[in-house]
Design a protein that fits this description.
Helix content: over 70%
Number of strands: 2
Oligomer: single chain
Order of helices and strands: HHHHHHHHEEHHHHH
Number of helices: 13
Strand order of the largest sheet: 1-2
Length: 331
């Protein structure tokens, strides 16, 4: 049973590595004219071009939200118990985006109705999971402040992403106090800021997962952290003709050695788990042997008690000798 669980955990870790690379498939697909001609001929996804310029753009965004939704789900499943319920917020945010992307009629007419209908069961489910999670108010004040801050960040990730809708269009610069955001090669500054916030919303849950997870598996999260960080940095380079297409090559010098190190860690952990399993089985075997010995001695004592009734002096002396020997052997 334990071996099956171990394999399932490793499949989860493999998915955490692979999923950030999923959106890059559109780079290979868009150069395949036979795929696009077949899709255009059959009219597949024809209703999804309400908000996209072409099929490639729609495929790319679909792959992005599929990969992010699955990433957040896996992190929710494997997060530390105290923060696990709060990972539901980025998961709900990503899953909602994916659903609205696949059903564009909801975006056009029923966007806010969708949120109103789904937010109530989501909050109820979150409260139930929050009740099951361990409380962290017994920690030190610094740890409590740190954990509350993390929970607040996770809760506000959907709000942070949706705030991009209120930025003014057709502007070359947007200023927030001392922070200035320019167009960086995008159509306008609002589109650039929208893309920046989107990457930040992808990065924050992964960073939180990395810093709150205490086992070796957290280093798996370094792969999506490197990929999304490269995507975020490239936004500020106006000389790039395309985004989310070259990062897989830019980060190869980091991700390939990292994958080798993670493979060694996985093997070491697998060896350690096998040793633990063997030790536990030995403990169980020793415990079983001890129980059998105790049962045998208890049966012996009970039989001797029965022999005492109506026994003569010679038999009593014999029973006494046997019990003394039993006590000496037990000591």
């Amino acid at each position: 049973m334990k071996i099956k669980i171990l394999h399932r955990e490793y499949w989860t870790l493999v998915l955490l590595i692979i999923l950030p690379f999923l959106p890059y498939l559109h780079v290979f697909w868009k150069n395949n004219s036979s795929i696009w001609s077949y899709i255009s001929k059959k009219g597949i996804f024809k209703h999804h071009f309400l908000f996209f310029d072409d099929l490639d753009s729609f495929i790319y965004h679909t792959l992005v939200w599929i990969s992010v939704s699955l990433l957040f789900y896996l992190m929710y499943r494997n997060a530390a118990p105290w923060v696990k319920p709060f990972f539901l917020f980025p998961l709900y945010f990503a899953a909602s985006k994916l659903f609205l992307l696949m059903f564009p009629q909801f975006i056009k007419s029923y966007r806010y109705a969708f949120y109103l209908v789904t937010i109530i069961p989501f909050i109820l489910f979150f409260l139930r999971k929050l009740k099951e999670s361990p409380l962290f108010f017994k920690d030190s004040l610094i740890k409590i402040f740190f954990k509350i801050s993390i929970c607040i960040i996770l809760v506000f990730i959907p709000i942070l992403h949706e705030s991009s809708r209120f930025f003014p269009d057709n502007t070359s610069m947007i200023q927030f106090g001392f922070i200035k955001v320019f167009s960086y090669g995008f159509e306008d500054a609002s589109m650039a800021l929208f893309t920046i916030l989107q990457k930040i919303c992808f990065l924050l849950p992964i960073l939180i997962y990395f810093f709150t997870k205490k086992t070796w598996e957290r280093y798996i999260a370094l792969v999506p952290i490197i990929i999304y960080s490269a995507q975020l940095v490239n936004i500020f380079n106006p000389n790039l003709s395309s985004l989310d297409e070259i990062e897989i090559y830019q980060t190869a010098k980091f991700t390939i050695p990292l994958l080798g190190i993670l493979l060694l860690l996985a093997k070491a952990n697998d060896h350690q788990e096998r040793i633990k399993h063997w030790i536990e089985s030995q403990y169980l075997e020793i415990e079983s042997i001890q129980k059998k010995k105790l049962l045998k001695r208890q049966n012996l004592i009970n039989s001797k008690r029965q022999d005492i009734v109506g026994a003569n002096t010679k038999v009593l002396e014999k029973i006494k000798t046997e019990l003394e020997q039993e006590l000496k052997s037990s000591n």
